[in-house]
Amino acid sequence: MHQLWLIPAFPLIGFLINGIAGRRMSKTAVNVAAIGSVLLSFLWVLKVLAGLGSLEDAYIERYFTWIQSGIVDVSFDFAVDRLSAVMLLVVTGIGLLIHIYATGYMSHEGGYYRFFAYMNLFMFFMLTLVLAANFLVLFVGWEGVGLCSYLLIGFYFHKKSAGDAGKKAFVVNRIGDFGFSLAMFLILVTFGSLDFARVFEKVGPMAVEHQAGVITLICLLLLVGATGKSAQLPLYVWLPDAMEGPTPVSALIHAATMVTAGVYMVARSAPLFNHAPIALEVVAIVGLLTAVMAATIGLTQYDIKKVFAYSTVSQLGYMFLGLGVGAYDAGIFHVMTHAFFKALLFLGAGSVIHALAGEQDLRMMGGLRKKIPVTFLTLFCAAIAIAGVPPFSGFMSKDAILLAAHHHHPWMYWVGVVTAGMTAFYVFRAIFMCFFGTYRGTAHPHESPLSMTGPLAVLALLSLGGGYLDVPHYLAPMFGGEHAPHETSLVVISVLAGAAGILLALLFYVIKPGLADALSRLAGKLYTLIYNKYFVDELYDAVIVHPTRDGSRALLWKGFDLGIIDGVVNGAGSLARTIGGGLRHMQSGYIRRYAAWVVVGAIVLLAAAAGMGGAR
Amino acid sequence: MDALLFLTFAGIAVLCAINLVLQTHPISSALSLVGVMGSLAVLYLLLGGAFIAAVQLIVYAGAVMVLFLFVIMLLNAQAERTTSKSAMRAWVSVPLLFTFVILLASLIIQRAPAGAAVKFGEFTGGSVANVGRALFTTYLLPFEVTSILILIAILGAVVLARKEI
Amino acid sequence: MPPELTQLLPASVPLSWYLVLSAILFSLGIAGFLFRRNIITVFMSIELMLNAVNLTFVAFSYHLKQVDGHIFSFFVMVVAAAEAAVGLAIILTVFKNRATLEIDEVSSMKL
Q1: Which one of A119, A221, A347, C83 has the minimum C-beta count within 10 Å?
Q2: pTM to 2 decimals?
Q3: Which chain A residues are closer than 8 Å to C110 by Cβ?
Q4: Domain covering C37-111 in this structure, CATH number
Q5: Are A287 and A345 in contact (CB under 8 A)?
Q6: What does the H/E/C string look like for A492-519?
Q7: What totals of helices (H) and strands (E) does chain B contain, helices first?
Q8: pLDDT tens-digit series, residues A260-311
C-alpha cells in the first residue's frame, strides 16, 4: 500500500484547521497550515511516484464500498497511472508555488484565513478528481472544484460583480455537469459499472462506431461536461468573468488546474472516445473554434487579466484540438506547459496589479520595465513560452498538437497556425503596453516581496525548460495510436507565425503607438464586434436568460408556485388544523380514556394480524 | 391429574381476577390479587419453574402486595361511590374487551405450536441452580444494571414521599 | 380421585390453554383499569397484567425447554417491584396534594 489517500487528505486537514480555527490564528499559523499541508501533499506525491517506479500499469487502491444498490455498485477507489501522475505533479507543484505566492499577494486582504481554507479545499477536491478510479469519485472532485471555484470567484463578496460572476460560473458549470451526469447514467446502463478499468475493458472488444451510437452519445455528453468545466464553446462565457476573484485564484483554478479538468477527463476516457470518431471530430472542431474565437477577443481587451483569461480559453481550445485529433499525449503535454506559463502570466499580472495598487487597465500602465524588473523578466519568459518561440516549453507542446492536427486534417493546422500568430500578438501587446513606453498611471509602483517573486522565478524556469520533460513519450504507451511524422517545414511555418505576431505587436505598441488605434478605427464595426466579445453574453441574455426568466415568472412563479405549491402547502396546513381540531377531543386528560384508546389500537392490530393469519 | 390441577388453579385465578375488578373497596381488590398471584405460582410449578414460583410468592404476593396494603391503610382509602357515568362506561368497555379477548384467543389457538402439551415433570430447567447459572453468566450485565434501577427507584420513592412536594 | 374422572380429563394440558388463560387475565387487568376509579386499584390492575405476561414467558420457557423465559419474568418482577415503590410514592404525593384517590379528578394532563 502506498497510502494514496494521504495525498488529498493533507490539504483537507489544512482546510479543516484554517476553516475551523483560522479566525483565531495568527497569519503565520494560517500560512503554516495552508502551505505545509500542500507541501506535505507534494512530497507525498513524490514519494508515491518514486515508490511506484515506471507505472506501466495503473496502480489501484481500493478503500470501501460506497454505494451498493441493484446494478449500481460503486466503491471508493483511488488509482495512479502515468496520466494521473503527470496531473498530480502539476497540481501539487503549481499549487504549492501559488500558495506561497498568495501569502504575499493576499497579505493586505481581509478574510485571509478564509482564502487559504478555500484554496486547501480546492486542492483536496482537485486531487480527488485526479486520483479517482471511477467516474463517480471523479464527479465528486469535479463538483467539489466547481464549488471552490464559485467560493473563490466570489471571494470579494461585498462587490456585486464578484458575486454575480461566481453565480454565473456556477450556473454555466451546472449545464456541463448535467451532461456529465447523463453520461454517467448511460455508462452505468451500457457497461454496468462506473469503474474506469472495467468500463474500458468492456469497451475494448466493441466495434468502433462509424455511425453514431450509444458510445458516441456517451462521449458527446462527456464533452458537454468538459466544455462547461474547461470553458469551451458554447459554455466558455463564465471564465472571463471569473477574473473577479483574487489573482492567485485565477492562476491556480482558472488557468493551471481546474479548467484543465475537462481535458483530463476526456483523456481519461480516451478508450471511449477512440470508439467514437464522430465525437472526437466534434471535440477537435469545438476546440479549434474556441481557440480562434477567444484569441480574436484577446486581441482587443484592455484589462490585463481579461487578456490572459481569453488566452486561457484559447489555449484550452488548443488542448481540445489535440485531444480531438487523437494526440491525447500532446494535449496533456500542453496542459502541463500551459500550467507553467499561464500560472506565471497570471501571477506576473498579479504582481503588476499589486505594484500598481489594484490597477488592471493596460492603458493605465506602461514603462514599468525599470520599476519592477523581476516581474518584467519573468513575465517576458512566460510570453516567449506561450508565443511558441523555440526551444521553450510552449513551442514544444503547441507544435506537437499542430503536427498531429496537420496529420488529421491540414486545414486544422492552418487555422491553428493563424491562432498561434494571434496568441503571440496579444500576449506581446500586453507585455509592451505594460512595460514599454511611458508610465501613464498615477500610483507609485513598487516591486513585490520575495514570497511573490520567488514562485515567479521558479515558474519562469519551468516555462523556459518545461518542454524538455518528455511527457508525450512518457504517456504514449497509455494511449497508443500512430504518431504524426516530424515535418520541419510545418514547424518553421508555425514559428514564423509566432514571430510575425511578436513583430506586429512591436510595431503597433512600441515603434508606432498610434497605429493600433488607427487600425481599429479602420476596422470599425468588426472591431466593435470583437471588442464586445462578439456580444455573446448579450446574445445568451436575449435568447436564453430572458425567455427563461420571463417564462419562469409567468408560468412557474404565478401559475405553479403560487397556484399549486402554495395551494398544496396552505391546504395541507388547514387540513391538519381541521383534523387536529377533531382529534383534540381525544386528549381529554382522563387516563382511563387514553387507556381505552390504547385498547382500541390493540384491537385493530390484532384484527389485522388475524386477517393475515391465512398467509402464514 | 395435570389437567385437573390446571383447571382448578386457572379457575381460582380467573375468579379472583374478576373479583378484583368488581370489588369497590381497594382492600378486597388487593386480597383478590394475592389470590391470583398464589394460583399463578402453582401454575409456574406445573410448568417447571420452581424458582420463579418461589419468587412469585415471596416478592409479589409477599413484599409488593404488603406494600399495597400499607398504602391503602395509610391513606384510609374508602369504597368507590357509583356515579352516573359508570353504567355508560360499562356499555362501551365490555363489548370492547370481549372483542379483545376473542381476537386474542383465536389468534393464540390459530398460531400456537400444534400438539405442544405441558406435562408436569418434563422440564425441570427452572431450578434455582439453573436460573442462578444463567443470571450470573449470560445475563450478568442486565442483572447488575437492575441493581442500579432499584437504587434509583428507592431514591425516587424517598424524594417523592418527602413532605415538601 | 375416581378413575372415570381421570380418564375424562386429558393427561397433559395443551400449551394454548396456558396462553388463553394469560390472555383472559390480561383482559381482566384492562377491565380493572377501565372500570375502577380508585388509583390504587388501577395500579393493582397493572400488576395483574404484568402477571399475565409473566405466565406466557414461563409457558414458552417450558415449550422451548430453555431457562431464558424464567429470567425474563424474573426481571419483570424486579421492574414491577421498583415500579410499585415509585408508583405508590406518587400516589402518596397525589393524595397529599389533592386529598383524593379518584383517578378522574387527576386530569390536568389535557390542553
Answers
A1: C83
A2: 0.64
A3: 587-589
A4: 1.10.287.3510
A5: no
A6: HHHHHHHHHHHHHHHHHHHHCCCHHHHH
A7: 7, 1
A8: 899 999 999 988 888 888 988 999 999 999 988 888 888 888 888 888 888 8
